[in-house]
Design goal:
The complex is a heterodimer of chains A (about 140) and B (about 450).
Chain A lengths: L2 E9 L4 H11 L4 E8 L3 E8 L2 H9 L4 E10 L6 H11 L4 E8 L6 E7 L2 H10 L4 E2 L5
Antiparallel strand pairs in A: 1-3, 1-4, 2-3, 4-6, 4-7, 5-6
Chain B lengths: L13 H4 L3 H22 L1 H10 L20 H6 L13 E6 L9 E5 H17 L7 E4 L8 H12 L2 E4 L5 H10 L4 E4 L1 H13 L11 E5 L5 H11 L2 E8 L4 E7 L6 E3 L4 E6 L13 E7 L10 E7 L1 E2 L11 E2 L10 E3 L2 E3 L1 H10 L6 E8 L2 E9 L9 H19 L4 E5 L6 E2 L2 E2 L2 E3 L5
Parallel strand pairs in B: 3-4, 3-5, 5-6, 6-7, 17-22, 18-19
Antiparallel strand pairs in B: 1-2, 7-8, 8-9, 9-14, 10-11, 11-12, 13-14, 15-16, 17-18, 20-21
Helix pairs in contact in B: 2-3, 5-6, 7-8, 8-9, 10-11
Classes of the chains: A alpha+beta (about 140), B alpha/beta (about 450).
The complex binds zinc ion.
The site of zinc ion (ZN) has 6 residues of chain B, from loops.
Chain lengths: ~140, ~450
Amino acid sequence: MAVKQLSVFIENKKGQMAEAVKKIADSKINIRAMSVADSRDFGILRLIVTDTEKAKELLSEDTLVKVSDVVAVKMEDIEGSLYGILKVLEDASVNVEYSYSFTAGKTPAPYVVFRVDDVAAAEKLLTDKGFCLISESEI
Amino acid sequence: MKGVQNNMGNYYQPEIETASREEILRIQNEKIVKQVKHVYENVEYYRNLMDQKGVKPEDIKTVDDIKKLPFLTKADLRDAYPYGLLGTDLKNCVRIQSTSGTTGKRVVAFYTQADVDLWEECCARAIVAAGGTNEDVVQVAYGYGLFTGGPGLNGGSHKVGCLTLPMSSGNTERQIQFIQDLSATILCCTPSYAAFIGETMAEKGIKPEENTLKAGIFGAEPWTEEMRQSIQKSLGIKAYDIYGLTETSGPGVSFECEEQTGMHINEDHFYAEIIDPETGEVLPEGTMGELVFTALDKEAFPLLRYRTRDLCILTRKKCSCGRTHVKMCKPMGRSDDMLIIRGVNVFPSQVETVLLNEGYTPNYQILVDRKNNTDTMDINVELTPEQFSDRVGDVEAMEKALEGAMRTMLGIGPKIHLLPPKSVVRSEGKAVRVIDNRKLH
Ligand SMILES: [Zn+2]
C-alpha cells in the first residue's frame, strides 16, 4: 500500500532544484507530488513520481537521493478530516515526521502524504478506520 | 610454526627496554652531555648555530636542557650537504645510506660501525617485539641499497639470529615462492607491498592460513588502521608498524609491540620532543605537534633537535608489553600543512581524524577566509547515500554534532557543510584539501 517517495538533497546554490526537476522531466517521468523542506544551508526536495527507480538512478548521478515509504491518504472534503487522520495516528503513538498534500489524476479531492515512523501500523490503523489510502500503482 | 604468538615479555634487550623511567633518564642525561660536547667540537655547522644562539655545551646538563639547543631542519641538511654535519673523520665511517629524491633534496647519512650496530640493535628490538626468535625465517622485501629499509631490517634480523632472506623489493612471484619454499615466518616490507603480496596470493588461490607467515614489520610510508586490518586478514599475520628516517639512522627509531597502540621510541638512543611547529616551543605529553629527534649517541651523523615535520603525539601511558619507553602515534600528517586560524594551529590531518572517528568519509575540503578581520573556517564534507536522511532535522543535527566534535579536536569551531558525494573539488583526481582565501585580501 505504501507509496515510494524520493528525497533529493539540494545544495544551497542557484538553479539546483530546477536542474533536478528538469532531469526528471527530460526522461518523461511524471512528478505527482512535490514538497521542499529547507534549512539555512541546504534543501531536501521530496517527490512522488511515476518511475521511482529510474528517477533515483538519474538523480543519484548528481546528488544524494533516498527512497522512503510514505502513506498517502485521500481527504474527504469535510471539515476536520485532516484532524481525524492525525488523531488516529496520535492515539496509536505513530509519529508524523512531516506531511504535504497533492491532487492526483482528475479527482478534485486532495491526497495528504504522511511520513511516519511506522508505515505498516499507520496503514493498518487508517484502513481499519475506513480511510482511503492510495497505492503505488495508482500514482 | 604458524600460530605461535609473541609471548608478552619477549625483549631483545630486556634490561634497557623495560628499564625504569629514572634509569632511562639517567642514561639519557649521561649521553646528552657527552653528545653535545662531541657535536660542538666536531661539527662546525652546528657549533655556529649554537654560538649564534649563545648556547655552550656546558649549558646542557640534562635532557631537560635540550630545549635550549637550536633546531636542525631539512634546509640545514641541504646547506651542509654532503659533509657539513659529519661528526667524525671519514676514515672512521663504514657506510652511507641515502634517501631518494633529486639532488639538493637528497639526504646522505654516514655511519661508523658503532652507528650501524646501534641501528641494527634497534631493528632487532622491533623483530623480537613482533615475535621473532632465532628460529624465525625473516623475509626482507624492503629495497636494499641506499634505502635504509632493507639494510636496517637485514641487520636486525642477523642480530636476532633469524635466517634472513635478503629478497629486496619486487618480483612478487619469487617473493611468494620463497615464502612458501623456505617457510618464511616474518615479512618485512612497505605496507603497500605487503598488501600487494596478499592480493597476489589470493589471486593464486593461496589461502591466508596456508602460508607460514605469522608477523609482518611494515613501515617507510604512511598507512592506516584499515590497511593494517586488511593486511592482517589477507596474509593471516599480525602486522607491526615501524618508524624511522634516514636522518636519524633508518627504521627502528620506534617500533610497535603486541599492543599495536603506538610505537615505542628507543629512548636510550633517540630523545623525542613534540614542538609547536610555529613557535618551536616544546609541547606537553599528549599534545599533537611536530616530532623532533636528538640522536643521543650516534657518532658519524649526530643530528641534534632534528625537525622531522611529522605530526605526532607522544604518550607515557603504561604499556601491557612491559616496555617503558615512550610511545609515539602513527604520524598524523606533515607540519608543513599547518594552518593558523584565529591564532590556533590547525592541521588538516586533525579534521580527517575527526571525520573518520565520526563515521564520515575522508572526502573534505577546508575553506579558510577572513571576514570583518576575523578568520572563518568552513569544512565541506561529503555524505554517503547511506548517511543521507530525508529529514532536514537529521541532517542539521549531523552538522551540529560534527561541528561539536571538530571544536573539541581543533580548539576552534568550524562551520560544517554536508554535501553530496563528489562535491569536493578535485584536481587531477587528487582532492584539494585546503583553500585559503585569506591570501587574496
Ligand atoms: Zn608496548
